[in-house]
Design goal:
By secondary structure, the protein is an alpha+beta fold. The termini are far apart. A hairpin with a 2-residue loop joins strand 9 and strand 10. The strands form four sheets. Strands 2-10-9-4-6 form a five-stranded mixed β-sheet, with no helix packed on it. It has a three-stranded antiparallel β-sheet with strand order 1-3-7, with no helix packed on it. The chain has a three-stranded antiparallel β-sheet with strand order 11-12-13, with no helix packed on it. It is built from two helices and 13 strands, in the order H-E-E-E-E-E-E-E-E-E-E-H-E-E-E. It is about 15% helix and about 35% strand. Among the domains are: about 100 residues, Sandwich (Immunoglobulin-like); about 45 residues, no CATH class.
Length: about 210
């Protein structure tokens, strides 16, 4: 019985001897937090922010009345929930078409509890298209996009562009069809079956089938 300890020590030495000869060390074990028996997992990084434009995209600002559609955005997280307290920066070019935020080219605000942020925009005197750079930051997360607008001398007030109406392209055809139907023109089709003739007269809004003659 007393000889077992020296034998066990000798076996341990023999098992570790090849690693010592080749200058290798036993592989390090992963760190284990105190009180646990498993390695600590690495937390996945959170997703980036998302900027949703609520107002101002493709807006037409009036240089006559000095009115503009101020940009309004909403900041969302990776699961589409509003982000409160994010820092939002609105920036326009100081030269060329554009405007200002209280006389400055940059405005910085915080989002409210709904995740929304806005800055009052005043157009300058230069007509043309421009963009507003919007940047949202919360901790290490950030997002950026551009809101495009146009300064127009002919616009009486600031407004959004009219939606496209493709049916305008066919207004002549629609007017022609309506005129023909309103004039009450009838069509007569003669069907001949052997020696008997049946007359079908078509009027607008009704169909009349005559008997055999």
């Amino acid at each position: 019985m007393p000889r077992r300890k020296p034998i066990a020590a000798l076996l341990t030495l023999l098992l570790t001897l090849p690693n010592l000869v080749h200058g290798q060390q036993a592989p390090a074990q992963p760190a284990v937090p105190p009180g646990t028996g498993e390695p600590q997992a690495v937390r996945p990084s959170t997703g980036a922010l998302k900027i949703l434009v609520l107002q101002g995209q493709n807006a037409i600002n009036s240089l006559t009345s000095k009115t503009a559609l101020s940009p309004v955005v909403q900041i969302l997280d990776a699961v589409e929930q509003p982000v409160e307290g994010a820092t939002v920066t609105f920036e326009v070019s100081p030269t060329g078409p554009g405007g200002s935020f209280d006389g400055a080219p940059i405005a910085t605000v915080k989002t409210d509890f709904t995740g929304q942020a806005t800055a009052a925009l005043t157009p300058n005197d230069t007509p043309g298209s421009f963009s507003i750079k919007v940047t949202a930051v919360l901790g290490e997360q950030s997002a950026q996009l551009r809101i495009r607008q146009t300064n127009d001398r002919n616009a009486a007030i600031a407004m959004m562009p009219l939606p496209p109406k493709p049916w305008y392209k066919n207004w002549k055809k629609l007017a022609m069809i309506g005129g023909v139907a309103g004039a009450g023109i009838a069509a007569t089709v003669i069907l001949v079956n052997k020696d008997q003739t049946s007359t079908i007269t078509i009027f607008p809004g009704s169909v009349t089938i005559g008997g055999l003659r």
